[in-house]
Amino acid sequence: MNREHLRGLFSAKSARVNTNKGEEYYNSLYERCKARLEELKKLKPVNNVNIMEVLEDEGINRRDFLKWASAMTATLMLPASFTPLVAEAAEVMNRVPVIWIELQDCAGNSEALLRSDGPKVDEIILDIISLEFHETLMAAAGHQAEEQLEDAMHHFKGKYLLFVEGAIPLANGGVYGTIGASGETFEEHLHRVAKDAAAVVAVGTCATFGGVPAAAPNPTGAVGVMDIVKGKPIVNIPACPANPANMVGVILHYVLTGQIPELDSLLRPKFAFGYRIHDNCERRAHFDAGEFVEEWGDEGAKNNFCLYKVGCKGPMTFNNCSIIRYNEAVNWPIGAGHGCIGCSEPDFWDKYAYERPMADANIKAPTGGVEKTVDEFGLGLLTAAAVGIGIHAAFSAVAGKKEECEIEEGDR
Amino acid sequence: MRVELIEKIEGEAKLEYKFKENKIDFVKIVFPHYRGIEEILRNRPVWDALAINPRVCGICGHAHLFATVRAIENLYQNAGIDVNITEKAKLIREITLFCEHIQNHLKWIYLVIVPIMKSIAKINIDQNSFLEIQKAIVNINRVLAIFSGQWPHSSYMVPGGVVCDPTNLDIMQARNFLKNALYIVEKRVFENMAFEEITVSELEKSRTDSGKIFRFLKENSLLSIGKANDRYLIFGEHSFTKRVKIIKTVSYPVKIKYVKEKSQKSGFAKNVTYKNNYYETGPLARMMLLKPNLIKQLHRVYKDGISTRIFARVLEILFLLKKVEAHLNSIELSQKSYNHIKTEIKEGFGESAVEAARGSLIHKIWIEKNRIKKYEIITPTQWNLSNGTLQNPATAQKAMIGLKNSKLAELVFRTFDVCSVCTTH
Ligand code: SF4
Ligand code: SF4
Hints:
The structure holds two protein chains of two kinds. By secondary structure, chain A is α/β, with parallel strands linked by helices. Helices cover 40% and strands 8% of the residues of chain A. In chain A, the strands form three sheets. Chain A has a five-stranded parallel β-sheet with strand order 2-1-3-7-9, sandwiched between helices. In chain A, strand 5 and strand 6 (184-185) form a beta hairpin. By secondary structure, chain B is an alpha+beta fold. In chain B, 44% of the residues lie in helices and 17% in strands. In chain B, strand 7 and strand 8 (250-253) form a beta hairpin. Chain B starts with a strand and ends with a helix. Chains A and B meet through helix 6, helix 8 and strand 5 of A and strand 1, helix 1, helix 2, helix 4 and helix 5 of B. One iron/sulfur cluster binds at residues 239, 277, 317, 319, 321, 332-334, 340-344 of chain A.
């Protein structure tokens, strides 16, 4: 397999998102969003904070805020003319109640989102969204917390966005995860809280695809939210941890349009998961030039060469961390010299979490191919990428049937 | 029997109280969650543990990564393979580990301890403090991310060193972020940053949040509640710790082989003992080793009551901030980040210990046919939250026995920085 073929594969149309849907489409979307925001403004806010005031207290002026709004508009893949609407949406975000529940996980997503950081404005906005219930964060605890959840579900029936962090263990009748005094299983709990949600957002790879608890042999029978909740719009925001910017993006999109964003075949918002890591990687030029880190700490590492040969799974991983990065955009794994482990892909724990290139991983691909050495680099890579793409294709058939929500099938 | 649920601990815990003559006579601690990480690790290629293990805990992911790396390095060493970690890599590993501790401790004070104090009586710590501390946390996480790529969950440490190769600019940036954090902590948490010199009387007079917390405890007669067994353990070896047990104030050397894990009938957490005794691990243990003024004074009067335990954690923030600063200043950028290890090994055993924010974390790995045959993880919270008997209560149990109500017991319980995901894994 020569380099031309490889390059062709990695810039294939299959990975592309349609960022220009034509004037007519955007005009009608614009009108729809405007009407939606007018409606929201009439609603009583769930809490009495004025975001502009809070931002000003924090030393963020209108101009900074608009800068943020325009970046967010771009992130959501909307034309720049939507910026004022995005800003308005942020201001009425506290009209949309959010309930956050934590199931079988390590709490990493809560940590990533709510207890640490994220781009500055995002962080403040998340502070003031109407987070009606969050086990880790709220003041109430124990029995009192249970009552609060009941209240929020009742009061905002049919209106709240339900964020779910963590997988659902089904083995042995669900004994590996029970909650509250009644000993309700996570599955029962999820059913109950999801019932009256407007939409369910699964955050992190545990909630989306089962995550590390679902790693072979999956001792607790862990599955993702989409395996449990049916007949409801579901948005998956995988990655381990999920990027706070993408969580904000989903809420904002919902506030703005009243709908969940356009999803890919794995129910992931296209604005965030429409790209491969590899497509926007800062080391990509070195990949194309055939310059690789052969061993950590070598000259290649010093010169930020491509990490493929030390195990980077960027070519098979769909996510926007190469653009948004982490911890206030200070860095991201590839920036720190470690390859991507494909944490936003289903089964990454079994398929991609290898400290070596796919070509070296000795993985039995569904196509039957077993790759051996770096000598067979080209071939191995091709098969590996094809495996990644194959998984997408396979899921698209399943997921398409599963959901009756507004999902537009992509061009993948 | 009265059952209380404890939330806000990254999962859930159940406390089952038995009262006798209006006092807590016994408490059972139950964790209803389980993921089976040790089972998942079985039969995998050795290095896969590097991707799985940070995910044991969303707060101590770094410590788990570090412990995994050290366990694998120990495995190589036991097989006679040279493992040579440069000073630079050692410093960077500690910087990120200590940053993880700092941000954890800050969150613990402001998201866990202050709110529960507020539910007991009035305490004058306002929202602004929280917002500012949030900025300090963000800055600390930025320092972390410069080296590790992201927080939580990263993979930047590998057997042989670290994969990052920081430049001068990175170090300057890190120093800058650290300075911002230091400034905020100094203003809000402690005005006197001389870790060694702070005294009880200074603390009592302090206008910072630490002073407020101290006065809150004093005014509500809580300074000496929550006494446990006055026995401490440290296993992680770092630039300021060594393997010791401390009984009252005297320290003795210890070995991992005397650590025993045992399943319990109720819940998924396992009990942990050292030579059949329960010990406390964490910031208080570490401060009992360092013996700064404040801890010596508090311990003399209040033993291992909650005031000593709380201020050990607070004080450790200062200590670690300074430590990170010193480490940043002593990195030799010209050294290598990583030294390749010959990794051909089919069978063997390795163990490691790392100090996580909440105490000593132990990993053990057994290899057969180049695969993981068995992997054992013993977490800090298991030490502190084990269940003993009425005659021989474990650490947190002992600390809660004798209290008048469950609200106070919850405060005491939380001074151990409880974490459900870590305890059960
Ligand atoms: S480091 Fe990874 S994502 Fe970046 S160019 Fe290389 S293979 Fe692609
Ligand atoms: S670079 Fe890869 S492994 Fe890392 S966070 Fe992004 S998707 Fe996950």
